[in-house]
Write the structure tokens for this entry.
Amino acid sequence: MINYRVADLEALVEELKKEGVTIVDKIESYDYGKFVHISDMEGNKIELWEPRDNE
């Protein structure tokens, strides 16, 4: 699985939905950031991660 680090996960997910991208699950929050999985046109699972800024 590929993992991409993103700056604003919620905004990105909304844009991807508008473009017809398959969102596999809902955004999950953890101490170290937020995650969601999408699927590409070939069915490959891709993880999007917005790390929590600890500074």
